[in-house]
Amino acid sequence: MKAADVEEFYRRLAAERPEPKGELDYVNPYTLLVAVVLSAQATDKGVNKATGPLFAIADTPAKMVALGEETVRDYIKTIGLFNTKAKNVIGLSQRLLEEHDGQVPNDRAILESLPGVGRKTASVVVNIAFGEPTIAVDTHIFRVSNRTGLAPGKTPLAVEKTLEKVTPDHWKRHAHHWLILHGRYICKARKPDCPACGVADLCPFKEKTPG
């Protein structure tokens, strides 16, 4: 996609959603981190249903560790991979207490060293919690980037690096959310809603759905 088209692409997404937000519920950077860890291979809606009651009684690492792994597991048992995730939530909470005074650091590398936290999770947290211009590539962003020609790549990391290169600095703060929401509601995997797409004329996708 040409630079002028990339600029227009983001301009239109921004016009549709001037203040895009993630759809995971949280109350502070710590609960955001936990929610994003729990969201792996799960829906935001499903995670929110489980974390509402959990965060009401445990919104800090100390409170979460005090609950214990078994109790955390009971709260999140409706979420996929809940056994491993409960262990990771307790593990990362302990690490935050021991090494960071119970605070979530604004440092992607440190976050990636925590149990259950990968590059995507760390990027989401520093973007939402601290306003860093990071772009975390999930399945939606991977699909949109390849389908539209915005940032083609064979792996999430390749797409991420291309997005960081081609996305103008003034759009990077919200690029992550614009692309996710576009992929979730318009540029869907099985049947993209091309007639409702505000950037369809900029997209070279050959199998556009008819209006």
Attribute tags:
single chain, 211 residues, mainly alpha, Endonuclease III, domain 1, 11 helices, 0% strand, elongated, Endonuclease Iii, domain 2, 2 domains
Looking at how many chains there are and whether they match, the oligomeric state comes to single chain
CATH topology of the largest domain: Endonuclease III, domain 1
Largest sheet: none
- What's the CATH superfamily of the largest domain, by name? Hypothetical protein, domain 2
Tally of individual helices: 11
Q: Structural class of the secondary structure composition?
A: mainly alpha
Overall pLDDT metric: 95
CATH architecture of the largest domain: Orthogonal Bundle
Summed up, the domain count is 2
Number of strands: 0
Poorly predicted residue ranges = none
Assign an overall shape: elongated
Order of helices and strands: HHHHHHHHHHH
In what range is the share of β-strand residues? under 5%
Query: What is the terminal separation in angstroms?
Result: 24 Å
The portion of residues assigned to helices is 55-70%
Radius of gyration: 18 Å
In CATH's first tier, which class of the largest domain applies?
Mainly Alpha
